[in-house]
Amino acid sequence: MTTRHARLLEAGLVLLIIAAGGLSLAMGSSVTDGFILVYSRLPRLLALVLSGAGVSLAGLVMQKISRNPFASGETAGTMDFAALGYVLALGVFRAESVMARLSLAFIGAMIGTSIFFLLLRRLGRNSVLHVPLLGIMLGFLVNGLTQILAYRFDLLQGLSSWMFADFSLVIAGRYEFLFLVVPVVAGTWIMGHHLTIAGLGEDMATNLGSNFRLTRNLGLVVVSIMSALVVVIAGRIPFLGLIVPNLILRGVSDNVRAVLPLTALSGAVLLLISDISGRLIIQPYEIPVGLTMGVVGGGVFLVMLSRWRGRQYG
């Protein structure tokens, strides 16, 4: 895809976000009620856009530093460890501030992603499918521990909303930390050249004069920040960080700087459409965006698995 075509696609995605955003704001009763728009609907819209962009970008970074198309915050256990940190913040430390909860979720995400890469190094990468399998098993283990802690501290009811990423609970005063996605995106674009080289492997990156380990560690920070932000504010969004980067990288380019805007915009559009669909299917009730993304993303993931089956990691 040429640069001109990529820019046209970016412009089209921006228009889609504007159109879908307008529809999202207009849905429901009391459309003209300014308080509802400012207090509930606009925060929900902004949270959806920022979360979609952040999770998709985290998936792009994870796939580059792990050199695996099936790696993402969802399939590496990052979000599960972030959720564990969040539950510890609520249950053990009784953290009341969002900053404290974010901090523990971030620490959990960092620890979890580091464990994932440590296990990956020790177990090897005999197949492209071993990486997500390892991450998913690690995630199941941590998720079980999280559920036990939630049961122990009477947090299961709140955790159920988190499991399905219910954006209807997002209101003014509870989502603003998601704006941290913007500077993280900017920082990722700055280090985009090194992330692209990191995708070639440690030896190649070293030969080209790039510090592979520093790039990987900074990438871990990016993935952990994005995962912690989305987990604490909205909840766990399945498959988004897995499928969006794959579609963009395969259809456009493997250059991180070139595909970063498309990845962020595509993630925002897909999450917006999933949210709107969930609000339309069984009106006046809503289906949490995590469920709609699970259905769509799960289907796409199965197609990806069938195409990559048997392929060895290069």
How does this model look, in words?
There is one protein chain. By secondary structure, the chain is mainly alpha-helical. The protein has one domain: ABC transporter involved in vitamin B12 uptake, BtuC, CATH 1.10.3470.10. Helix content is 74%, strand content 0%. The protein has 13 helices and no strands. The chain has helices spanning 3-26, 34-66, 78-91, 98-123, 130-152, 156-163, 181-190, 192-198, 202-207, 212-233, 240-251, 256-281, 289-308. It starts with a helix and ends in a 6-residue tail after the last helix.
Total E-strand runs:
0
CATH topology: ABC transporter involved in vitamin B12 uptake, BtuC
Compute the CA-based radius of gyration. 19 Å
Task: Give the count of structural domains.
Answer: 1
Helix/strand/pairing category: mainly alpha
- Give a quick account of the main beta sheet: strands, pairing sense, barrel closure: none
Instruction: Report the span from N to C terminus.
Output: 24 Å
Helix and strand element order: HHHHHHHHHHHHH
Which assembly state applies to the chains in this document? single chain
Assess the beta-strand content as a share of residues: under 5%
CATH class: Mainly Alpha
Average pLDDT value?
A: 90
> What percent of the residues sit in helical stretches (DSSP H or I)?
over 70%
**Shape estimate:** globular
CATH architectural category = Orthogonal Bundle
Superfamily at the CATH H level? ABC transporter involved in vitamin B12 uptake, BtuC
The number of helical runs is: 13
Parts with pLDDT < 50 across at least 5 consecutive residues: none
